[in-house]
Amino acid sequence: MAVHDERHRLARELHDGRRTNPVWHHARCVRVLTLLERSETEQVHTVVDQMLRLVNDSQTELRRLYMSCDRTSRITCREDLLKRW
Questions:
Q1: Which is more confidently placed, 9 or 24?
Q2: What whole-number distance in Å separates Cα of residue 48 and Cα of residue 68?
Q3: What dihedral do alpha carbons 55, 80, 7, 54 form, nearest 10°?
Q4: Gap between the Cα atoms of 2 and 56, Å rounded
Q5: Is residue 18 pLDDT above 60, yes or no?
Q6: CB 21 within 8 A of CB 53
Q7: Neighbours of 69 (CB within 10 A)
Q8: Are 28 and 47 contacting, i.e. CB atoms less than 8 angstroms apart?
Q9: Residue 12: what pLDDT?
Q10: DSSP state of 69
Q11: Reduced DSSP (H G I as helix, E B as strand, rest coil) percent helix, strand, coil of the chain, to 5
């Protein structure tokens, strides 16, 4: 039962992050294309830096979530993630 609860908690937290991050990244990519069309390269650097920070933060959060699981849950979670990706 504990493994099931851990998997459910992890799935819920991952789902929340995956639901919002692609939307944000899409908007940022559209912004980059617009800036490139206008030759506003300094702004492009700013937007890309923001995107990279979010990706790094997301990776850190995934590691934190993964490590918060007990060992059995981590193995099961890793197997589930590999099947999905």
A1: 24
A2: 30
A3: 0
A4: 30
A5: no
A6: no
A7: 18
A8: yes
A9: 64
A10: S
A11: 90, 0, 10
Q: Where are the alpha helices (DSSP H) in the chain?
A: 2-37, 41-68, 71-84
Tell me which of 22-26, 43-47, 50-54, 81-85 is least confident: 81-85
Per-residue model confidence as pLDDT tens digits over 44-54: 999 999 888 88
pLDDT category at 37 given cuts 50, 70, 90 is very high
Contact between residue 17 and residue 61 where contact means Cβ atoms under 8 Å apart: yes
Distance CA 85, CA 82 (A): 5
Rounded to an integer, what distance in angstroms lies between the CA atom of residue 10 and that of residue 48?
29
Residue 84 and residue 81: Cα distance in Å, rounded? Answer: 5
Spell out a b/e string for 28-59, using b for 16 or more CB atoms within 10 Å of the CB, else e: eeebbeebeeeeeeeebeebeeebeeeeeeee
